[in-house]
Amino acid sequence: MTSPSSPKPRVAIIMGSDSDFPVMRQAADALSSLDIAFELKVVSAHRTPQEMAQFAEGARSRGIQVIIAGAGGAAHLPGMVAAHTPLPVIGVPVPIGYKQGEDALWSIVQMPKGVPVATVAIGGAYNAGLLAAQICGFGGAECDQALGDKLQQLKAEMREASLAKVVSYPENS
């Protein structure tokens, strides 16, 4: 998302493969809706481990405050990135294969002591974007108000959708 005229990104959204983009795009959508600058990149724990380590180790010096890492299957990316950075890492289990993300979820939430990774729901990249905004504490009344308004809007939409649901049971004849 960044360009020469864009502000310096404060959130990094990374994924193990470009096939994860349809899910991880939701994190970008959440951050964009709040006018929060981010960078978006494919970084593989398996195919490019040295580059992944360099990315994680250099993120803080680039001004990144939170890393959102999405991966499916073995889903080593969030944990490996967390092992190489002091920054908060949010793991997004990407639904792929016959387990549809359950394997990725277990891989991400079972991190050893000292390597914390916050984890959202399977495919929950939008919430990862909102959580990143909250973690960064983007500061300033205007940004804080925008985030608060967005969260209230989402809650109101969920409430309306729930109240609109009607469940009926045919009467016994």
UniProtKB/TrEMBL annotation:
<comment type="similarity">
    <text>Belongs to the AIR carboxylase family. Class I subfamily.</text>
</comment>
<dbReference type="GO" id="GO:0034023">
    <property type="term" value="F:5-(carboxyamino)imidazole ribonucleotide mutase activity"/>
</dbReference>
<feature type="domain" description="PurE">
    <location>
        <begin position="9"/>
        <end position="162"/>
    </location>
</feature>
<keyword id="KW-0413">Isomerase</keyword>
<feature type="binding site">
    <location>
        <position position="47"/>
    </location>
    <ligand>
        <name>substrate</name>
    </ligand>
</feature>
<feature type="binding site">
    <location>
        <position position="17"/>
    </location>
    <ligand>
        <name>substrate</name>
    </ligand>
</feature>
<dbReference type="InterPro" id="IPR033747">
    <property type="entry name" value="PurE_ClassI"/>
</dbReference>
<dbReference type="Pfam" id="PF00731">
    <property type="entry name" value="AIRC"/>
</dbReference>
<comment type="pathway">
    <text>Purine metabolism; IMP biosynthesis via de novo pathway; 5-amino-1-(5-phospho-D-ribosyl)imidazole-4-carboxylate from 5-amino-1-(5-phospho-D-ribosyl)imidazole (N5-CAIR route): step 2/2.</text>
</comment>
<comment type="function">
    <text>Catalyzes the conversion of N5-carboxyaminoimidazole ribonucleotide (N5-CAIR) to 4-carboxy-5-aminoimidazole ribonucleotide (CAIR).</text>
</comment>
<protein>
    <recommendedName>
        <fullName>N5-carboxyaminoimidazole ribonucleotide mutase</fullName>
        <ecNumber>5.4.99.18</ecNumber>
    </recommendedName>
</protein>
<dbReference type="GO" id="GO:0006189">
    <property type="term" value="P:'de novo' IMP biosynthetic process"/>
</dbReference>
<dbReference type="InterPro" id="IPR024694">
    <property type="entry name" value="PurE_prokaryotes"/>
</dbReference>
<dbReference type="InterPro" id="IPR000031">
    <property type="entry name" value="PurE_dom"/>
</dbReference>
<keyword id="KW-0658">Purine biosynthesis</keyword>
<feature type="binding site">
    <location>
        <position position="20"/>
    </location>
    <ligand>
        <name>substrate</name>
    </ligand>
</feature>
